[in-house]
Every structure is written in structure tokens, then in C-alpha cells.
Description:
By secondary structure, the protein is α/β, with parallel strands linked by helices. The chain has helices at 20-37, 42-58, 60-71, 75-100, 132-145, 159-171, 186-194, 206-216, 242-254, 274-286, 307-321, 353-356, 372-380, 395-403, 439-442, and strands at residues 2-4, 11-14, 103-108, 111-119, 122-126, 149-153, 179-181, 199-203, 223-226, 232-235, 266-270, 325-328, 343-346, 363-369, 384-385, 387-391, 409-412, 424-425, 427-428, 431-432, 434-435, 445-453. The longest helix is centred in the first third of the chain and has 26 residues, at 75-100.
Amino acid sequence: MKIINPTTEATIKEIKEDNDQKITEKFMELKRGQKVWKSIPLKNRIQCLSNFGKLVEENIDELAQILTEEMGKPLSQSVNEIKGADARLKFFLKNSEKWLADEDLGANGNTLEKIKYEPLGVIGNISAWNYPYLVGYNVFVPALIGGNAVLYKPSEFATLTGLKIEELMIKAGIPEDVFKTAIGGKKAGEHMTKLPLDGYFFTGSYQTGIHIATAVAHKLVPCQMELGGKDPLYVTDKIKDIKKAASFAVEGKFYNNGQSCCAIERIYVHENVFDEFVKEFVSLTESMKVGDPMRDDTDLGPLARRQQLDYLLFQVNDALDKGAKMILGDESIETQGYFFEPTVLTDVSHDMSLMVDETFGPLIGIQKVSNDDEAIGWMQDTDYGLTAAVFSDDGKRAETILEKLDVGTGYWNCSDRVSPNLPWSGRRKSGLGSTLSYQGIRAFVQPKAYHLREW
Ligand code: NAD
């Protein structure tokens, strides 16, 4: 398996992919290891994860460098991601005892009633490359704290990061037979669906998610899906500072090159402020620097995967063929590195792939609307339901709009934000189940009800 640097297209490293037999062996070891791990006191498990956090912190520069080399995000964003993941870790360290504690419900007649939370067993975590620390921590940190063993399959586009995570876990005191990586791509993931794992926690595209969910459905074990989105932003006409609104929109769209599940994927702007907003949005977008992600002044590096370039070109051409106007962009593709110039289109509509299918890149369509009801109609015209944002000086108006949308997360005057205190969940094609918050602690345990009666 070749690990390619998307900036230079050079091979960083060649590593051996795990075959089916190797993954099965790892699973068998985890099965044994979990039996011991679950009986280790919760406080000690928490301590191991705390050690892991310290090791990550100590090695942050090297880890950020590895991440940027293998997936292309600017180095400063790799550092930010690892720091953000640490904040999530600290949330779990602080809150797990409270949410995993036995619940004594007292007497019901002559019977004492009590709930205890037990681990699921060995869980499979099939993960994505765009934020390997953030989306990984959402799963393997609470899973381990809850007493589970984890078979972690990093994305084939973030393999070196996955291997580093495994190395630091072991160094931190997590037993080798409690956390293991399955190295590989689709084939390795497919094999995991065939193993008798006790839960599947997937982050990735809808297409892969539905395939996995279907393959494991007959096992009736927990199966959580954090999938894609087509997240809309609506800019109302009640905005004094259009430049500020545009700068927040640019950040929400282009951070990590638009390769965030909760990136702004389409923009609707009230006709009274449309021209001014578009002017500011384009001018700010133009000022972003595309280039070597290792440089401090780079805003956008290459995309992580070559095939995404063809897909983005398809969305641009499909939109242009159907009447869209390209007001910023350059369709020529660099000969070296997976670079795509930030591209903005107006005169867009929902018969274009750009406005209905996940883009996952530095390309955006901006559509004019004449009132809130029209905006709500377009925002709801999607099979996805991850996040939605409203920019307005009127918070009440924004909240009224957000209440009408079928999404897991609503943003007023912000976007592309995840907090460990709040549940992270998608609706419909954006996923199933929640990570983060107390719900993301309980997701990795199962309740056992006790009816206790003294004769
Ligand atoms: P992907 O679906 O291509 O791959 C995800 C993982 O699944 C990888 O580890 C891959 O090797 C594995 N895989 C691929 N085919 C498989 C199969 N047939 N069986 C089992 N495993 C298989 O997704 P990606 O390109 O890694 O990530 C991008 C997608 O993830 C986007 O749609 C993005 O929106 C979504 N995402 C969602 C969230 C969220 O929290 N909702 C977070 C990050 C990314």
C-alpha cells in the first residue's frame, strides 16, 4: 500500500496492508484483551487515556507534520485539529465517571431497582481521513473508557496518523490487545463487517455507510453512522456588517479545503443583500493563498484524493451547462499535486449536482432568494440533515428558521463548529446515532437492569 503525498504526489512510504487473516487474528486478540480491560477500574482506564493525551501533546509538531504530509491540510490546521481533539479528550476524561456510574433508583415496593452500564465488547471503528484525530477521538476515546476494545481502521488516506495513534496508545498504557489498527482500505473495511464485532462506528460517506449498515444489520449490534452533508447557509437581509458575514461564510466554506462534513456546501442570500454579499465573499476568497501546506501563509493545500478533482470538475461543468455563472475559479488543474482553485458560481439551481450532492471541496454555489420561506424550502430540499446555518442580526428570526429544518445541528451566526458538550448527529442520509456530549459516552455501553429483592 503506497502512502502518497497529495502536494508532491511522491510516495512517502510503502506499507503492508493487513489481509483478512491478519485482521481476524487482531480481532481474536482484542476479544481476549477486552475481558481483562473491562474489569480494570474506570479510574485507571481514564488515567490511561489521560496519559495518551499527554503524549499526543508532547508530540504535536511531529504528528501535525505527518498529517499534513499524508492528507494535505495546512500545517496550522493540523495543529488546530490535534488541539481540538485534546479538548474533546478532556471532556471525556472529566465527564465519563458521572455518566457511566451505576444508577440506584431506590425501592419499588419490596424490590430495589438499579441500572449498571456494561461495555459493548470489541467495537469496530471504520474512520475517515478529513479529521482523523477529531472523528477518531469521538469513537475510540469513549469506547476505551467504557471498557471496550477497539479495532480501529484509519482511512487509507490517513494511515500513518492511525499508526501513530496506535503507537501512542500502547505507550500510554493501553494494553496491546485492547487497541489495534486494521491497516488497509475498502477490502479491510469489508472484512471487518464480516467479523462478529459487538458494534460498528463508522465515519465516512453515505454510500459506504449504507453498505456497511446493510452488511451488519442482521447482527443486531449497535451501528452508528456519521455521514456526509449538504449543509446550507442562509444569509438574511437583516445584516449590518455584510463583510463580517462574508468572512464567516468564507471560513465555514473553505476551511480544510471544504473537506469537512459540516462545511458550508450551498449558500442562499436574500435579494436585498445579494450583490454586496457576493462581492465581499468573492474578494475574501480571492485573497486566500493556495499552495504548499507546510508554509505558514498557505490557506488551502491540495485535496487529499486525486479522484476528487474529476468530481469537482464534473460539478462545475454540469452547473455551467445548466446556466450557472462562474464568477471566481480556474478550471485548469495543476500538473503536480491535487490542487483545485477556490471556485464560486452564481445563477445556480437545484437541477445542478452542485446544489444537491455533497461537494467536499473548495467549490460553492450561491443562490438568490426573495424571503425566508423560499430559503427554508431550498434548505430543506435535500436528503441530508447534518447542519444548517442562518446569518442574521435578528437571533429570534434565525432560531425560528432553524426550528423548521430537519438537521442535527443548527448554527446562528457561525458554522462548521463542533462542541464536545453537544451531541453530534446527522439525520436521514447524514447518519444515525450521536457521538459527543453525555450521549456519546453512553453510546459505547449498554444498560443492564437489576431487580433486587431480599427474601
Ligand atoms: P469513505 O466512505 O470513502 O471511507 C470511509 C472509510 O470507509 C474508510 O476508512 C474506507 O477505507 C472505508 N471503506 C470504504 N469502502 C468500504 C466498504 N465497502 N466496506 C467497509 N469499509 C469501507 O469516506 P471518506 O472519503 O473517508 O470521508 C469523506 C466522507 O465522510 C464525506 O462524505 C464526509 O462528509 C464524511 N464525514 C462525516 C463526518 C461526520 O461527523 N458526519 C465526519 C467526517 C467525514
